[in-house]
């Protein structure tokens, strides 16, 4: 351990204590700023080594480094790692026994502790603040600093007191660190902490070793199958679920299939969570199925994939959690398994995070009424309050209590030997009608929180490079496409078969139907009008009032030879191959992507998976025709009678202008083939009998133009 009275060279200490010969890019500038005595805000990507930016300076100069951390698991991981290196570090939190708590405070008084980890709520205790005031503090490090911003994705009211704490302690040098902070969040951090002439160091958000993908999934079974594929391919990973119930569902499935995994969620005891966490860290299990509390500070660099089983509540949360993959710098994979219905879970969380003013007032009144008349305290649990007030969403009670704490109406305190916390009424005579709670502020928070859900939904539906979209969101200047994600490189497209014959025609019919159910923009892209289910019903020729307005489309019933399950499988395969584009919103709409358009028009090979539909194709006549046709061995599918009539009229006009018989321009058989294939390029039309080089040059452009106009509606 370095002597307390010495200012040591950071690089020498880095080598001697941590075994590194140099700092990573980004770390060096942060450490330099801290060693120069400057208040600092460091924005570094997950896995960038934020903790070393305050641990190293802590060992290079005298005094205590006070680290504020939001999670007990994160504290424990870091304290254990420091102790293994012979560094006297301790943590103080609610999990300690009374004797352990006394020992830690004794070490603090005797100044034998170099780094102290505490949770932000600890500063509410006057005795603890008095002890800190007597302790020489050289640095305050606030980890996960985005927690103090209500614009952030993980707002924690206890973080709001940190600005006052810093002032009360004489404003020691302060460093705030986070991996995910938009411009608004950065401003909040600087303002709340009152940092003096701070060095703001942004190392960049890009993680060049990560590949991002969003996979649409219609069912839970699809999600589970995809997880098995990811595990086979990547071996080591974290699977994030939104709820405890879902964690246990996924964990149970993996266990049934003999996969060695751990489950981690807030419903486990502290001992159970610690055991599960240690299994993963010590590589006794390579798969962790967890809620979002898992992973902060986890010292396992070889996580090869992070999968989100459901959409998270914000882009910040997604990128922070995904960033736990590939911390060793090697290639890693991040995937969102997306089903629009999963947003209901986030809406539930949203409601729990935003109780209305009346709910807050009701909870305050209940606490006052049931508190001890002498001490004005109550030890009721969240569930007891919920049962008494008949509130279904218990999250709303926790949020209301946090709001009351922030307003100074109540205080929360630890109960020795219990995980539940007690509540003290600060002003027993204060009625609910006089609570100092800003209702407009509550409405603003509600608007912000809903915007976070809307934004992460936009990410899921986006057709922009995944990493480029994220970097743009965080305000990184001029982000470039990554070239690796499912948008830049549709997943496994090259490994799918290039379809021919009937499967190819089925795909083109489906894409043509989607085009007919869309609107063509002036820039050549497609605008969605209808949802997926209506388009599938239209293609199958379903007779339903819901699609009565679609029965006049020329593609109505064009795929009535496919069963309902087969056409669903076809659409899933089209989505996986990057052929479809979906808009966000409560009722997503479907249209063609650029790749789907190019496959429809024959400009791109139809490399598309065939699972679940190609083997189910049965031949069925289209309306207006009696049979499918084969010309020169090329299966053409059913001619489109309406298009054939238009092509015949065009041929008649051209023949009249040229003064030649219509058959000299194109035969009936060739027109039937054109109406079936609907080519939009000469290359796509050339295999059709009757279209040779002379015809292609002289007449074909007129027919291709008509087909394009027909498809555009």
From TrEMBL:
Keywords: ATP-binding, DNA-binding, Helicase, Hydrolase, Isomerase, Metal-binding, Nucleotide-binding. InterPro entries: DEAD/DEAH_box_helicase_dom, DNA_helicase_ATP-dep_RecQ, Helicase_ATP-bd, Helicase_C-like, HRDC-like_sf, HRDC_dom, HRDC_dom_sf, P-loop_NTPase. GO terms for molecular function: 3'-5' DNA helicase activity; ATP binding; DNA binding; four-way junction helicase activity; hydrolase activity; metal ion binding. It comes from the Bacteria. Its cofactor is Zn(2+); Mg(2+). Residues 31-199 form the Helicase ATP-binding domain. Coiled coil: none annotated. GO terms for biological process: DNA recombination; DNA repair; DNA replication. Residues 226-371 form the Helicase C-terminal domain. Belongs to the helicase family. RecQ subfamily. This is ATP-dependent DNA helicase RecQ. It comes from Akkermansia glycaniphila.
């Amino acid at each position: 351990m370095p002597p307390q009275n010495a200012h040591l060279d950071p690089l020498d200490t880095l080598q001697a204590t941590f075994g590194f010969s140099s700092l990573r890019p980004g770390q060096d500038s942060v450490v330099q700023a801290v060693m120069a005595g400057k208040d600092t805000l460091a924005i570094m990507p997950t896995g960038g080594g934020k903790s070393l930016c305050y641990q190293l300076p802590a060992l290079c100069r005298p005094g205590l480094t006070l680290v504020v951390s939001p999670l007990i698991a994160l504290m424990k991981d870091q304290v254990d790692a420091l102790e293994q290196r012979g560094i006297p570090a301790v943590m103080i939190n609610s999990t300690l026994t009374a004797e352990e708590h006394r020992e830690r405070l004794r070490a603090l008084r005797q100044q034998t502790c170099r780094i102290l980890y505490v949770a932000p709520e600890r500063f509410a205790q006057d005795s603890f603040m008095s002890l800190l005031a007597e302790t020489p503090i050289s640095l305050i490090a606030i980890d996960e600093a985005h927690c103090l911003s209500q614009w952030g994705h993980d707002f924690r009211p206890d973080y709001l007191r940190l600005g006052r704490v810093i002032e009360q302690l004489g404003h020691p040098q302060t460093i705030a660190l986070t991996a995910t902070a938009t411009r608004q969040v950065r401003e909040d951090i600087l303002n709340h902490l009152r940092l003096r002439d701070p060095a703001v160091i942004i190392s960049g958000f890009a993680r060049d070793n990560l590949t991002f993908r969003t996979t649409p999934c219609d069912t839970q079974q699809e999600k589970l199958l995809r997880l098995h594929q990811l595990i086979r391919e990547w071996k080591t990973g974290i699977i994030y679920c939104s709820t405890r119930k879902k964690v246990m569902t996924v964990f149970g499935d993996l266990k049934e299939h003999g996969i060695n995994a751990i489950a981690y969620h807030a419903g486990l005891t502290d001992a159970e969570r610690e055991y599960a966490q240690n299994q993963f860290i010590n590589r006794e299990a390579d798969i962790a199925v967890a809620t979002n509390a898992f992973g902060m500070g986890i010292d396992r660099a070889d996580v090869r994939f992070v999968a989100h089983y459901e959409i998270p509540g914000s882009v910040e949360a997604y990128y922070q959690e995904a960033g736990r993959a590939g911390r060793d710098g090697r290639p890693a994979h991040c995937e969102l398994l997306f089903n629009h219905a999963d947003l209901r879970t986030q809406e539930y969380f949203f409601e729990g995070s935003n109780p209305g003013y009346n709910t807050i007032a009701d909870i305050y009144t209940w606490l006052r009424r049931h508190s001890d008349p002498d001490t004005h305290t109550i030890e009721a649990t969240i569930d007891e309050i919920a049962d008494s007030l008949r509130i279904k969403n218990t999250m709303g009670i926790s949020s209301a209590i946090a709001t009351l704490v922030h307003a100074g109406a109540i205080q929360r305190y630890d109960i020795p030997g219990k995980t539940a916390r007690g509540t003290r009424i600060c002003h027993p005579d204060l009625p609910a009608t006089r609570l100092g709670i800003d209702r407009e502020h509550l409405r603003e928070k509600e608007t912000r929180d809903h915007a976070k859900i809307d934004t992460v939904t936009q990410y899921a539906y986006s057709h922009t490079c995944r990493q480029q979209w994220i970097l743009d969101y965080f305000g990184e200047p001029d982000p470039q496409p990554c070239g690796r994600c499912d948008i830049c490189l549709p997943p496994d497209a090259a490994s799918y078969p290039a379809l021919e014959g009937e499967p190819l025609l089925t795909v083109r019919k489906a894409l043509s139907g989607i085009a007919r159910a869309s609107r063509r923009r002036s820039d050549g892209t497609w605008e969605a009008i209808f949802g997926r289910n209506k388009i599938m019903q239209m293609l199958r020729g379903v007779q339903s009032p819901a699609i009565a307005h679609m029965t006049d489309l020329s593609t109505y019933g064009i795929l009535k030879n496919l069963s309902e399950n087969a056409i669903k499988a076809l659409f899933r395969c089209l989505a996986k191959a990057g052929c479809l584009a979906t808009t966000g919103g409560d009722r997503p709409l479907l249209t063609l992507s650029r790749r789907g358009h190019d496959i429809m028009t024959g400009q791109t090979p139809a490399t598309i998976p065939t699972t679940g539909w190609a083997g189910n194709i049965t031949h069925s006549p289209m309306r207006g025709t009696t049979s499918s046709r084969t010309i020169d061995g090329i299966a053409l599918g059913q001619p489109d009678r309406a298009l054939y009539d238009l092509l015949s009229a065009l041929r008649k006009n051209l023949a009249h202008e040229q003064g030649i018989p219509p058959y000299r321009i194109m035969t009936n058989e060739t027109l039937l083939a054109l109406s079936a294939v609907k080519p939009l390029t000469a290359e796509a039309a050339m295999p059709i009998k009757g279209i040779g080089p002379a015809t292609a040059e002289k007449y074909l452009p007129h027919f291709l133009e008509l087909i394009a106009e027909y498809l555009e509606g």
